[in-house]
């Protein structure tokens, strides 16, 4: 049975916080890198897969982003927000780059995000997901769809306006309005 | 309904306020970027010129940098709404294998970890001084701290300031060098590992090629067929006048224990074969009959060997396993 070895031998998740793991990665600790991967690979892969809709390409993005962390952990510091959020934004941007067959447009080190969430614990991540989904579910469908087309489908505001027939300004304000709603829900 | 243009103005203004430091410096501060454009910038939807202009503005505007960081935080939160899918199990192995291939050379002097910020929501794209206008945390550039220092003479203060500035510059330079050095060492270690692996592969390929093309090499074909049986052979030296005979044979099959080989002299006059002695081959199949007791004056036209029962026979039993005639 699995009682002695753990369910399917899946390694126990590390309880160490992200800054400590990153400090160990800076010292070349491969086990710390494995812990970071175990913690955030699902969300990074899921975002890439949602954008690219291609498991192989999503896996390539996953590999590239975590190798970026390994090669240059100095590129991410606590001043740039929480690691989980940073990885998801970078995963989305890299996937859009691939979708548009363009070279990476910005150094990932330039991505800075304001977030006080601590996503090191799986419970925190699950809680964030549930809350974010519930907030998005309350948005009007056209606003929700516009944000989805922009973030996950990588359609620019001009392309969305062209597809939906909505004015460009409306598309822009819908996107920002949806994000503001999300922000305010988490601030309250 | 929920478009921003439908929102109360206060909601929009609350979502994007310039920093306190910038508010205090309003005269020199550039006008803020359009918040909607910052969202498009974060989502990488601006064209090259627009993105470049926005980046330039961000470099000079702390308030917009803060707003951009908030937008990135919003986007990160939104990213978590996607349905979770687990990556293939092999992805972890692939990553860790690559990580192992790119092992790091850990510098002897460890890099000093930057102290965590008290407020994780405060972020900028660039240097630490951009964070200080908020007055959170100590800074050597903070005028309040300067005021609290003991008063010194103007000359000492100037030289002291220069000294500190040089020291700070050297420290920054050393840190930059160290960081670059660590990065280069990492890359070097990675390339060295790859080169070592390629060299090993090349050496193996050379050995293989040498083995296949060396003219001194022997080549043996191996098949599943049994090795061809070597034929038994024998030779007789016979002098009829003296009745002397020497028979040597090789490659003879081993016989059952109750059987024996027997040599025969076939006379030319057509009379019955004359037994010339029995024999058993040794382990290598060799045998001999040396000077058997034969009558003199028997002209022979042929010699033969048969297999007989132990003790021998007076008449040969077919088949004849070895035979040879004169002429």
Structural notes for this entry:
The complex is a heterodimer of chains A (188) and B (327). With 188 residues, chain A is mostly helical. Chain A contains eight helices and no strands. The longest helix of chain A is centred in the first third of the chain and has 23 residues. Chain A is globular. Chain A starts with 17 loop residues before the first helix and ends with a helix. The N terminus of chain A is likely disordered. In chain B, the strands form two sheets. A four-stranded antiparallel sheet of chain B has the order 4-3-6-7, with no helix packed on it. A three-stranded antiparallel sheet of chain B has the order 1-2-5, with no helix packed on it. The longest helix of chain B is centred in the middle third of the chain and has 60 residues. Chain B has 327 residues and is an alpha+beta fold. Chain B is rod-shaped, with a radius of gyration of 53 Å. Chain B has three domains: 76 residues, no CATH class; 89 residues, no CATH class; 93 residues, Immunoglobulin-like (Sandwich), CATH 2.60.40. Chain B contains eight helices and seven strands. The N terminus of chain B is likely disordered. In chain B, 40% of the residues lie in helices and 15% in strands. In chain B, helix 3 packs across helix 5 and helix 4 crosses helix 5. The chains are: A mainly alpha (188), B alpha+beta (327). Chains A and B meet through helix 1, helix 2, helix 3, helix 4 and helix 5 of A and helix 1, helix 3, helix 5, helix 6 and helix 8 of B.
